[in-house]
Structures are given as structure tokens and as C-alpha cells.
Design goal:
single chain, alpha/beta, 299 residues
């Protein structure tokens, strides 16, 4: 069964100018964001930037062996190294890297901006990493109107927009990163929203109900592209009223959250008609539990 690594073998020789950006490219960039580029990608948005090839070469020279931890896929370093050597991604320019971990405020936030050859910019938000802080912050979503990472994401997107005023924007992430991408696009302001071409939520959890009722959400909703694994157990958490695409996974239950298990073709993901029975049952059960709880009980 083919996955995003196979996609790089199939499409790696075709530049983004030769074959337009698609949903599989989106997931690859969202996964690249999981690698810790501290010291290898500039933090600023002005004149400093580095190609993926140069950033990856420097990173792997300094870290010949990379351990992603228990919960983050070990294939990510392989993906980054492979993508950096392809014509499709080697010249993608990286900038604006931020990685913030704060135990006191229970915050785990990381983002990266990638300049694509078609003139657009892909703003990637990292999903949950292997830190206890990151997982605490995830659980806080169930009872907190706004977690710190969401606030940082909206501010980061505004910074990107101000620093790159003429570039159309793509916003995306995997897991919590997908949630942050949607949240940032909702609360970045109407002027920034006008420049957003698409928001890619790759199996990210939903939101508190009141966020779906905001004016910002109403404006951006038609451009949100939610992609769920057929066995989704993360992407169905909390509330989300967007249309979604269901993709086939080679893994069951929580394992299907791993983007490396999503089956691909040379141009897209392999579609499923609906979520699996287990995923639908899990979604119904979680909704029934949460609806019957006060915020204090959820906490």
C-alpha cells in the first residue's frame, strides 16, 4: 500500500510549477514541521531564509541519528531527508521558525513558513509532540475556550501576513496542528482571511461549540479542507461542522491518525465513502459524554 514516501518517489521529479500543489503535498509539509529546526531555519520573516535542502543537510549533519520519541512517527526524518532531495521540494524556502515549550502555562507551540515557487506561502503548525506539556494542552481543549497555542497561532499568522504582504496563503497542520491552522484562520482578522486560499486540517480535533458560531468561522468555513482517516479517533473529537474528506488508512483505531498510514495515489489520497463503524461509534460516544458534562466536570 502506497503512502507519502511512495508519493515522493512518484512525483519527486516534478516541480510544483510543473504539477500544481495538492492535498498530498499539504500533508508532507505539515509532517516536515514536526522536525526541530531550531538553529537551522531563521526565526525572522524579513531577508533571512533557507532552502529545505540546505536546512535538512545542516540538520542531519548535526544529528545523524534522530529519535522522534514514542508518539511521533519515526519516518519523519526519513521524509524530510527524502523530500529535500527532490526537485519538487528541495528549493522550497523556509523561514519564521518558532518552537515554544512552557510548562507553567502548559503550552507547546511550533510553526514554520514555507515559500512555494508559485508565489504562495504554506504556514505549517506542528501537531502534538512527545512532551507531557503538549499532551496536557491537548486535554485542556475539552474545557478551555482558548489554549495558549491557539492564541499564538493566530498571532503567528498575522505576523506572516504582515511580513509577506503579496503572497497568497495556505495554512495547514496535522493533528493539533490542523486545529491550530483552523483557529488561526478564524481569528487572524478579515483582511488576512481574504488572502487565504485554503486551510488544511489533517485529522485535527474540533472546537468548543461557540467558536463555530463566530463571524470569522463563517467567513473562512468554505475554504477549510478537513481530511479524516477512515478510522479517525482524533479528528472527530469535540465539534466541527465542516464538510470533510475521508481517506483510507492501513492502520486501525488510533494508529490511523498517523499520516504515514494514509494511502496515496500519484495525485491524491485514496478516498473512502465514510468513516468506519468504529470511528462513528467513538464519535457518538464522545459527543454524548461531553454534551452531558459541565466545563468543570470535563476538567
Amino acid at each position: 500500500m502506497a503512502n507519502i514516501l511512495d508519493y515522493l518517489d512518484w512525483r519527486g521529479d516534478l516541480t510544483l510549477s510543473e504539477r500544481a500543489f495538492n492535498e498530498v503535498d499539504n500533508l508532507i509539509l505539515a509532517e516536515i514541521c514536526y522536525l526541530d529546526f531550531s538553529g537551522f531555519v531563521p526565526a525572522g520573516f524579513q531577508t533571512q531564509q533557507v532552502t529545505l535542502l540546505d536546512a535538512a543537510s545542516a540538520y542531519f549533519a548535526a544529528h545523524p541519528e534522530t529519535n522522534m520519541g514514542v508518539l511521533v512517527p519515526d519516518q519523519i526524518p526519513v521524509l524530510v531527508e527524502h523530500a529535500a532531495k527532490t526537485a519538487r521540494f528541495s528549493d522550497v524556502r523556509l523561514l519564521g521558525y518558532v518552537n515554544r515549550i512552557d510548562e507553567e502555562t502548559q503550552t507547546q507551540f511550533s510553526a514554520l513558513t514555507m515559500l512555494l515557487p508559485d508565489g504562495s506561502a504554506y504556514v505549517a503548525f506542528r501537531g502534538t509532540d512527545d512532551t507531557i506539556v503538549g499532551w496536557k494542552e491537548d486535554f485542556n481543549m475539552a474545557f478551555t475556550p482558548e489554549i495558549p497555542a491557539q492564541k499564538y497561532a493566530a498571532e503567528y499568522l498575522r505576523q506572516v501576513s504582515g511580513a509577506l504582504p503579496f503572497r497568497p496563503l495556505l495554512v495547514g497542520g496535522h493533528s493539533k496542528g490542523g486545529n491550530l491552522a483552523v483557529y488561526a484562520a478564524v481569528f487572524c482578522g478579515e483582511d488576512v482571511q481574504k488572502r487565504i486560499l485554503a486551510v488544511y486540517n489533517n485529522d485535527g480535533p474540533g472546537f468548543q461549540e461557540k467558536i463555530l458560531q463566530t463571524e470569522g468561522y463563517r467567513r473562512i468555513k468554505p475554504r477549510i479542507k478537513t481530511i479524516l482517516s477512515q478510522n479517525a479517533m482524533v479528528g472527530t473529537l469535540l465539534w466541527n461542522d465542516c464538510d470533510y474528506t475521508v481517506v483510507k488508512s492501513t492502520a486501525a483505531l488510533l494508529g490511523a491518525h498517523d499520516g504515514f498510514t494514509w494511502e496515496t495515489t500519484p495525485t491524491s489520497f485514496v478516498r473512502c465513502e465514510n468513516l468506519s463503524p468504529s470511528a462513528r461509534a467513538f464519535d457518538r460516544a464522545m459527543e454524548e459524554v461531553l454534551v452531558g458534562m459541565s466545563m468543570a466536570e470535563r476538567q
